[in-house]
Amino acid sequence: MNNKMMNLKDIVISLDAAEVQRILTIELDSNKDDALEFIRNVLLKKIRKALESHCVPVFEANYRPHQMDEYIKKE
């Protein structure tokens, strides 16, 4: 079992309208191949992203995601 599997937690996954429609179509058609493809290509990617470490050292408690982007010159 890899390290990510050891740090499981509850997560919330957001689906856009197209993904919701795809799920409803899979259920309506009972298409197992499409269901597996959706799990692998959509849900699994979202789950892995949600399980990524977002830890910040205590001395950087004021860190905000993407704060560095504010300092990058925009051309």
Report on this model:
- 49% of the residues lie in helices and 0% in strands.
- It is mostly helical and 75 residues long.
- It has a domain at 15-48.
- Helix 2 (17-29) runs antiparallel to helix 3 (32-51).
- The protein is elongated, with a radius of gyration of 18 Å.
- The model has no long low-confidence stretch (mean pLDDT 79).
Summarize this structure as a short list of keywords or feature phrases.
3 helices, 75 residues, mainly alpha
Present the secondary structure layout.
Blueprint: H1 3-6, H2 17-29, H3 32-51
The helix/strand class is: mainly alpha
Radius of gyration: 18 Å
Order of helices and strands: HHH
Count of helix runs = 3
User: Could you tell me the strand content as a percent range?
Assistant: under 5%
Extended strand count: 0
Query: Which blocks of ≥5 consecutive residues have pLDDT under 50?
Result: none
- What's the pLDDT, averaged over the residues? 79
Shape: elongated
Largest sheet: none
What is the straight-line distance between the termini?
45 Å
Could you estimate the helical fraction of the residues in percent?
40-55%
